[in-house]
Amino acid sequence: MAAPRHAPLPLPSLSLDKVSHRYGAKQALSDVSLSISPGEIVCLVGPSGCGKSTLLRLAAGLETIQEGSVAIAGQTIAQPGSSLPPERRGIGLVFQDYALFPHLNVLDNVRFGLNRLPAGERDERAMSALEQVGMEGFIKAFPHALSGGQQQRVALARAMAPRPAVLLLDEPFSGLDTRLRESVRDETLHVLKRSGAATMIVTHDPEEAMFLADRIALLRDGRLVQVGSPTALYTKPVDAFAASFFGEVNQLTGIVRQGRVDTPVGCLTVPHLDEGVAVDVLIRPEALRLTMAADGDGVGVPNLARVEASRLLGRTSLVHLCVSDRDGRPHHLHARAPGHFLPEDGSHVSVTLEPRQAFVFEKM
Ligand SMILES: Nc1ncnc2c1ncn2[C@@H]1O[C@H](COP(=O)(O)OP(=O)(O)OP(=O)(O)O)[C@@H](O)[C@H]1O
Hints:
Bound molecules: adenosine-5'-triphosphate
Protein name: ABC transporter ATP-binding protein
InterPro entries: AAA+_ATPase (IPR003593), ABC_SmlMolc_Importer (IPR050093), ABC_transporter-like_ATP-bd (IPR003439), ABC_transporter-like_CS (IPR017871), ABC_transpr_FbpC (IPR015853), Mo/tungstate-bd_C_term_dom (IPR008995), NA-bd_OB-fold (IPR012340), P-loop_NTPase (IPR027417)
GO molecular function: ABC-type ferric iron transporter activity; ATP binding; ATP hydrolysis activity
Pfam families: ABC_tran, TOBE_2
CATH architecture of the largest domain: 3-Layer(aba) Sandwich
Low-confidence stretches: none
Number of helices: 8
Order of helices and strands: EEEHEEEEHHHEHEHEEHHEEEEEEEEEE
Helix content: 10-25%
Largest sheet: 6 strands, mixed
GO biological process, one term: quaternary ammonium group transport
CATH topology of the largest domain: Rossmann fold
């Protein structure tokens, strides 16, 4: 019987394959492979110096490839010894400082990258890109007369005007203050999604990555630690570093006994770990569910914790707890409760552990 026919999968717009890179003795990237599909947004995140910008610069052609290769739409455009220059790669670039030409007005800045098109078409394309970012009313303005958010939008329009298959953005919002950043990145997300380009965004901000990305690529010391959807990285981190990168975690330690780890707030089953193994236990603050203990001292209530402080943080409350393990040793934990939950300092609460937000990893 003939094998069922499947439509061929669309080629990734951008592929980096087994890329390694050194600056002198410094190994900045080691064996990194990553592909981005048309219309997909991938955020590169990781601590300072982990190699995010180097990877983006290699994709852009701003850094010469030493090991591995870069392909756009299935065509290898960079490998050791041969490399297409940045302007011939069909990519759009946006940098942290926007890099607008100060002596050109907004329209001319956006028209700049369209010089291969006939004059009439250039204007039409540039205007259409400016409309997409809501800057069509500023065509005669010069960059110095624009706010940071407006400059960022013009930079995005300039990158998108040639309709590149690949967009590369390096910390595009970090020059903006917090309030402006939220609204500009919201608009940018919708503009990028409408553009259909494969987009790689470098950011050091995990929350920003979770907001923008279809997939997140987490780097550490030049290596990919985990690549997946924001939900996968948050709920199924591959190690303690990944678990703690995307939000505060309470850290405890333990020993595996009969497929379980005992913690001061409940037991976790760990069938995949061997008997006697020493483990790190990471518990997200929202994994600790609190209920007021009926009596003042809470004697006899399971998993009892003493409240050290409670703070309202807007939509959630943060409760500082002191819990004791089986040996009577105290541990300080943070619990995050939805809404207004502010038990008195010194009162007692009962703690239930939501195991899906707790992670156990063998100690390294
Ligand atoms: N031109 C260079 N010469 C020498 N070392 C460099 C150069 N550029 C980067 N490095 C080093 O390579 C490593 C990776 O740098 P890279 O800028 O890619 O990291 P990053 O994750 O983008 O950091 P950040 O978030 O701080 O911008 C760092 O240790 C950095 O100091």
